[in-house]
Amino acid sequence: MFKNENKIAFIFLLFILFPKFFHRFFRKLVYDIEEKENKQE
Q1: Per-residue pLDDT tens for 20-31?
Q2: Cα–Cα distance between 4 and 1 in angstroms, integer?
Q3: Range of the structural domain that residue 16 is part of
Q4: Using CA atoms, how far apart are residues 9 and 5, in angstroms rounded to an integer?
Q5: Model confidence pLDDT, tens digit, residues 1-41
Q6: Which residues contact 22 (CB under 8 A, 6 or more apart)?
Q7: Element (H or E) spanning 19, and its range?
Q8: Element housing 7 (H / E)
Q9: How far apart are CA 9 and CA 12, in angstroms?
């Protein structure tokens, strides 16, 4: 239980410290998901 909370806090901390990295990461993630959906149609 504590481990999951620590993981969330750690990710949140990284999100604050490295917003550019996370924006790039999430943009790539969303782009990959959209690409997969487009290929299925």
Answers
A1: 888 888 889 889
A2: 5
A3: 2-40
A4: 6
A5: 567 888 888 888 888 888 888 888 888 988 998 988 888 76
A6: 14, 15
A7: helix 19-40
A8: helix 2-17
A9: 5
pTM: 0.42
For 15, residues 6+ apart whose C-beta sits below 8 A from its C-beta are 22
Residues 17 and 24: beta-carbon distance below 8 Å: no
Backbone angles phi and psi of 9, in degrees to 5: -65, -40
Question: What is the distance between the alpha carbons of residues 14 and 40, in angstroms, rounded to a whole number?
Answer: 34
* Structural domains counted in the chain: 1
Distance CA 24, CA 39 (A): 22
